[in-house]
Amino acid sequence: MNHYICETCGVQYERSIEVPEECKICGEERQYISSTGQTWTTLDKVIEEGTYKNIIHFEEERLYSINTNPGFGIGQTAYLLKEKEFNLLWDCITYLDQTTIRQIEDLGGIDAIALSHPHYYSSQVEWAEAFNAPIYIHEDDREWVTRPSEHIIFWSGESFELQEGIILQRIGGHFKGGTVLEWKNGNSQKGVLLTGDIIRVVADRQWVSFMYSYPNFIPLPSGNVERISSRIKECKFDKLYDAFNRVIKEEAKQRVQKSASRYMEALNGTLFTT
């Protein structure tokens, strides 16, 4: 029996003798099944191939990014946040080997894991077992968990403080339980927001966007974006990191608000005429 992994999204499933018929994450309109068809692998097989390695990069004081090279699945970035003897892994990547485990242990290990949304659940249980860490997922996204585990804690409500100054904020949008991480003490006390792709930084790093589906170009309704904008006003941050290591280095809070306004004007037909 194996814990099969969807090669398109990188999400791992509970143990089974045969491969699942279809990936539930990819088989709905926010993601996609590859044009070449549904394919599966396992973590052991990926490690044995020797193709991949994780790169841990220092981003700023007490914050590291973790990327798999070459990219695997969706290719997102995970972040390791260090705060007062509390290390948090924000979002997950699929690839995990002994080298990565040793490198992270040298940085103090992982005390907790928190997820923005189901596309980045990846091999979260492997990470939780390797570091004996709880996984925090908003209860509104419970149905999307493909590998149940006693490590998973479903939290509820609009916010949840993991540690002083480290707060999960459910803002919805991309998924009902879509969550961002507010780190009040980061960025020299000016605050950092880590967003997955609940909020996505665009090419020029001056604006952000909000989507129901990025690969299928399905926008969010303007009302959802207005609600997200209102919730984000309550957070303390001047810098923003998204799921693909795009960073707004300053005035991020103002740029999110401006971007939300532009997005709503576009959907409401008042931004331009063509």
Automatic annotation (TrEMBL):
CDD domains: YmaE-like_MBL-fold
Domain Metallo-beta-lactamase: 75-232
Pfam families: Lactamase_B
Superkingdom in the source lineage: Bacteria
UniProt-listed InterPro entries: Metallo-B-lactamas, RibonucZ/Hydroxyglut_hydro
Gene3D superfamilies reported in the protein's UniProt record: Ribonuclease Z/Hydroxyacylglutathione hydrolase-like (3.60.15.10)
UniProt protein name: MBL fold metallo-hydrolase
Organism: Peribacillus psychrosaccharolyticus (Bacillus psychrosaccharolyticus)
